[in-house]
Amino acid sequence: MIKKKGEERSMKYKLLSEFSQRQHMNTVDYEIFYFDDSNLAQVPSHTHDYYEIYFFLEGFIHYIVKDKKYKLEFGDCLLIPPKVEHQPIFLDSSKPYRRLVLWITAKYLEKIAQISPDLIYCFEHVIEKEDYKFHGEASIGHDIHARFITLLEESRSNRFGNHAAKTLQLGSFLLNFSRLIYDQNNQVAFHYQHDLYVRIYNYIGENLTEDLSLEHLASYFYVSKYHISHIFKDNMGLSVHQYIMKKRLQESVKGILSGIPVSKVYDQYGFSDYTNYYRAFKKEYGMSPKQYKDSITFQKGARQNGET
Asked: At 55, is the pLDDT very low, low, confident or very high (cuts 50, 70, 90)?
């Protein structure tokens, strides 16, 4: 269901956190915040005894981490280990300063590492290299944003299984970060994206009559719909929707020519109703399905008569 703008704003305000300069945690595991502020006073350089993942959304700032200064843009992430000095430097207050922030206690991260050390690779890497900023392309930024919001929503939820859900989602969140940083560090991102494209391409071809919405594909392949859209367009030159439409129409033509009635063929090749199928077919082939069938039948008859 598509949310109206008013509903989106309402949800945003429900998730917002009130900014404070508190530098200690009130929980034994993790805390997550969504801040949207204007005209903040300068925040002094500080450290804390927990791990922080900071996701930049909007504003005009530089961020200093230890002895490095970073200019931030949408989708940039900072991974800040305990005892590392850091400080935002506000350059201009004409835009709101929006960011998502995740704090994780050292004790809880140790507990997570017992499940698999791969989950905390992201922090081990920044500690070793002292490079605290991660920058990915726009689709990756949108994916991280969506994961942050999912984790934030679950942290505010009182649903049954909430504790288990938060634990699982945090593990997935950290693993995603660790994979991104590992891939970037080892220059394998291209191979991963091409492999994902091939798997999506094959899945579409094998499931043309099933639900192939971006939402379904994102859920099936455990990546965001923004990421799927990006890598598919890069490799195919068409959007996912355009490719699926062309593929379904091509297969429906084979069905028509094999003798399936035009009035039934649309349902067998993934179209919701005949009207949508008719419009898509006419746009692609310049004629109606019946006209197309009649023209092919006429051409076959003409060739046969010419040969006899």
From this structure: very high
